[in-house]
Write a structure and sequence with these properties.
- With 124 residues, this protein is of the alpha+beta class.
- 23% of the residues lie in helices and 27% in strands.
- It is built from three helices and seven strands; from the N terminus they run αβαββββββα.
- The protein has helices at residues 21-35, 47-54, 117-121, and strands spanning 42-44, 61-68, 74-81, 90-94, 100-104, 107-108, 112-114.
- The model is unreliable at 115-122 (pLDDT under 50).
Length: 124
Amino acid sequence: MVMQKELQVKKDYSAVGEDIGPELGASFIKAYGEAHPDEVKYFGVGRTILEQTLAQPGCAGIRLYNALNEKGQKTLVCVGIDEAGNDIVKRVMVEEDGEVTQINGVVSDRQDSGWSWLGWLIGM
């Protein structure tokens, strides 16, 4: 009996995503707007919270979850992910006195949402 071992390739979560350029981006946005005319057009996330999320020890990227806020409005929840693709919702911290504690990871919401100049530019 011949046994085969599968080679598992480790995904590099820090390299996920690419620059698609304004033209392709605009076509994606236009296609979504035409397919879902009553949906929120965009979510804006500020640099400060993105930097706080990425600055967490071991953070390789950010995962964006579709969610509903406490008012029932669509939003995104942003969570840092580690190199294995796991959400960073808790992390270990060593206090100045040497005590090891567990603290919450950065999990963010409160994005800006609505219409954007790009939507206006492509006629949405």
